[in-house]
Amino acid sequence: MDRMERVKEMLLASPKDNFLRHALGLEYVKEGNDAGARVLFEAILADSPDYVGTYYHLGKLLERASETQLAITWYEKGMAAAKLAGSRHAYNELQTAYEELVY
Fold first, then answer.
1. What is the mean pLDDT of residues 62-69?
2. Which CATH class is domain 3-102?
3. Burial of residue 71 (number of CB atoms within 10 Å: 0-12, 13-18, 19+)
C-alpha cells in the first residue's frame, strides 16, 4: 500500500485529524491534484485556523493557479495566525512568500 492509501485509511478512523488531512493534501500536490489538495487545505483552515503550516501550502497552490490576490490574503491570514501561535519560523516563511508576491 502506498503512502496516500495509508493516509486515506487512517483518515477513515480520524476524519478531522489535521495532520493526516495536511499529509493527504501534500500527497495530492505531489501527484498534481491541486484541486483535491485545495479542498483539504481550506477545510483544515476552516476548522482550525491555528493550524499554521497549511497557510503556506495553500498560498503556494493558489499562486500556481494564478490566484495571486487570494494567495496574498491567505499569506496575510497565516502571518497573523503564526504571530498568535508564537511561531517565528512559520511567520518568516509566510512573510517571504507574501513579499515575493507583493513587492
1. 97
2. mainly alpha
3. buried
